[in-house]
């Protein structure tokens, strides 16, 4: 498997200004992230809110330009492409947004929204547009008759399906899902997660799933990267990271999943301000194992399949209870089996 | 999806526009305003057919006659039929109102979108110029421009268009800034829309409602401005009729022949009121909060 997407040393800081408009510092949203996604792979990026996940997603698509670092997408350095070359490249990489109530243009019908990428990248002749849209809509489980309707007539789950159909329209090589289900009701979440994993399997999509929901990530991801305060602290095959976490932060994150069973101590305190991230290991302020070295030396992510950025990774005691692999996803799984039952998808909203 | 379920009948799709029209039609005063506006537009268009006399035809035997069956609004100081002049004057006023506001939209909206979406120094330059123009009273600026361009109806319309445009710059800039922060604009970019397409295909349709409201109110203002310019001799030139120039020539006879000023004056009032009522109705009908379901 060759890397379809490769990010190298990405840095993004957002300037913070005081009341007089002077630069008063910067939010270190993403601070030196490198990762690669192989063709056909599903990478899950997990972390608390505010850890820079969404910024990273937008950096990967070059929707915002990094302050440092490069993003290579099937050979091209996106940060160096001209504006028009980048636009043409967008055919191959799409984004699914978190909030389906905000990501669809309120003045465009479903058909117009889904047909837009077809038109922008001249994918099918105009005459075939309508058929293609109908095809895409049924692909995501919506009735093609709904094409002439406006977004306000749909529920959240249906809108997210529309957004997914739009993302699929240009037959992209890569889709980034920025918390694609977290704005939805739990029951609908399961449906949309199922839809996504079906699409990933059937279309062989390369997918980057950004989520704070470990259950969702466990369900679809091949590989997982855990972010904390703008950095990746642990990265590896989903199975390994989620069942044998090495980083204290990942352990705490897994222990916090409700119904998990593991009684690891919850992490104390709040995430430190990203305006003045702590020196050394970013997690040392909340890490129960922190030693002197963690306060001064920034740990590197290391090498190999399962990488971890922790000085003590090899000397940590084993997790209090070995997390049960299934427990975290149990709730989701039950919901999924319930909602996967064949039946009509809700058509028109009530 | 099982085939066992019969397809449920779908109610007709409702576009945001259609829903707005429904809300507008429930608003009685607004509908009244619309009817009056349509009426005056018709009068302006059909002036040659419905005017009972030639508006320029003078007659020494009928100078300053009060309203009568022959001359419903009386005759003026040159013996011309006031009703015919009011009817023909509708042309000048409606044209001045509508065309100058269309001009203001054509100048203001692209600049506002550019300022809002481009940001940076482009925004700074456009916004400061618009602010500078807004800091001068509307009529003073229009008078100065019209005087500079020379007295003619076309020049008055150009002056009004230019003077009214900063309002639209401001409005569309603000709306563009709002839109820029939304996910669907980011989505438009992520899909590969070039900036101009994002501006005109995504942002513009979404800011039409407030522009429409502002435009209908601006037409009322433009009609007053045209009347004021004509009153000052900077708009429609005599002997051609316009409500403003009729007021100008009638002021000398305010006590002896009040009908000369009352009829054009009341007409201006009615038309301006109608546009304002229509604008208010549009504002209510197009309120984005009413669209949230």
From TrEMBL, chain A:
It comes from the Bacteria. InterPro entries: AAA+_ATPase (IPR003593), ABC_transp_ATP-bind (IPR050319), ABC_transporter-like_ATP-bd (IPR003439), ABC_transporter-like_CS (IPR017871), Oligopep_ABC_C (IPR013563), P-loop_NTPase (IPR027417). GO terms for biological process: peptide transport; transmembrane transport. GO terms for cellular component: plasma membrane. Its main location: membrane. Keywords: ATP-binding, Nucleotide-binding, Transport. It is found in: Cell inner membrane. CDD domains: ABC_NikE_OppD_transporters. PROSITE patterns: ABC_TRANSPORTER_1, ABC_TRANSPORTER_2. GO terms for molecular function: ATP binding; ATP hydrolysis activity. Residues 5-254 form the ABC transporter domain. It is a peripheral membrane protein. Belongs to the ABC transporter superfamily. This is ATP-binding cassette domain-containing protein. It comes from Neoroseomonas oryzicola.
From TrEMBL, chain B:
One of its GO terms (cellular component) is plasma membrane. Its main location: membrane. GO terms for biological process: transmembrane transport. InterPro entries: BP-dependent_transpt_permease, MetI-like, MetI-like_sf, OppC_N. It is found in: Cell membrane. Keywords: Cell membrane, Membrane, Transmembrane, Transmembrane helix, Transport. Coiled coil: none annotated. It is a multi-pass membrane protein. Residues 90-279 form the ABC transmembrane type-1 domain. Signal peptide: none annotated. Pfam families: BPD_transp_1 (PF00528), OppC_N (PF12911). The chain crosses the membrane at residues 29-51, 94-117, 129-149, 256-279. Belongs to the binding-protein-dependent transport system permease family. This is ABC transporter permease.
